Automatic annotation (TrEMBL):
Keywords: Hydrolase, Nuclease, Signal. Residues 148-175 are annotated as: Disordered. GO terms for molecular function: hydrolase activity; nuclease activity. SUPFAM superfamilies: His-Me finger endonucleases. InterPro entries: Endonuclease-I (IPR007346), His-Me_finger_sf (IPR044925), TAT_signal (IPR006311). It holds the Pfam family Endonuclease_1. Residues 1-30 form the signal peptide. Residues 157-168 have a biased composition (Low complexity). It comes from the Bacteria. This is Ribonuclease.
Length: 267
């Protein structure tokens, strides 16, 4: 008899004996996400590698704060590049709706797409001034009506569908993006919390576990955002977007796209 068959028979016999004896067998546990390695670890992230918690957050803040700021009007053309539909170069891919829409249909009317602040402007009172109001790492194209429905709601699970939702849901005090971009949303929110720490004339943006933040500089729900980061890891669209912003516009990166495991390390 082959050795593999012998080992299998011994395993089954031991298992049966343990069950008959009333012994508890060890249960399978999920392994923690392995740390990722990127081409930027020895250069861009050199001062952050090996750190955890507050030390990691502080180091990343220093790194990503070295940033070129663009104007709000320049965001229009930037989004046509960063969010170009990989299957149609004439279109952009809308964040919450998942719709592919002509780049030329940017504006404020029904059927247009506009500039969605994923970290809502009112959650920090930063408006559209150069800085958090124009940071491409959290600005995405979205259907005008869907953008209005999201408003300044915090993020959480649950709700009902709506026109052009693409699978996104909303209720009275929260918004749930479609499954394919849940992780994108989480990583954008947490990028903002690290980038803007209250030391450059802007409010100290922080995540919390509430969905009633209103106009204070907080965004929730942190526990849900962390789960979304795990459930929806960075894909090629998100990674390409990060590269374009770094290479062509702002000169800084979203570290949670490069190292999604850093979310758990900090929060």
């Amino acid at each position: 008899m082959p050795a593999t068959h012998t080992r299998r028979r011994r395993f089954l016999a031991l298992t049966a004996s343990a069950l008959l004896a009333g012994l508890a067998l060890p249960t399978a546990t999920a392994s923690p996400a392995a740390a990722t390695t990127t081409a930027y670890d020895d250069t861009y992230y050199a001062d952050a590698i090996g750190k955890t918690g507050t030390a990691l957050k502080d180091s990343l803040h220093t790194i990503i704060s070295d940033q070129t700021k663009i104007s709000y009007s320049a965001v229009w053309n930037a989004l046509k590049v960063t969010d170009q539909d990989p299957n149609n170069s004439s279109n952009v891919k809308l964040l919450y709706s998942g719709i592919s829409r002509s780049k030329s249909l940017n504006g404020g009317n029904t059927g247009n797409w506009n500039r969605e602040h994923v970290w809502a402007q009112s959650h920090g009172d930063f408006g559209t001034s150069a800085g958090p109001g124009t940071d491409l790492h959290h600005l995405r194209p979205e259907d005008v009506q869907a953008n209005s429905i999201r408003g300044n709601k915090d993020f959480d699970n649950g709700g009902s569908s709506f026109t052009n939702s693409g699978g996104s849901l909303t209720d009275s005090n929260s918004f749930e993006p479609r499954d394919a971009v849940k992780g994108d949303v989480a990583r954008m929110i947490l990028y903002m919390a690290v980038r803007y720490e209250g030391d450059d004339s802007w409010p100290d943006l922080e995540p919390n576990d509430a969905v009633t933040n209103g106009s204070v500089p907080y965004m929730g729900r942190l526990s849900v955002l962390k789960a979304w980061n795990d459930e929806d890891p960075p894909d090629s669209f998100e990674e390409r977007r990060n590269e374009i912003i770094y290479d062509s516009y702002q000169g800084n990166r979203n570290p949670f796209i490069d190292h999604p495991e850093w979310v758990e390390s900090i929060w």
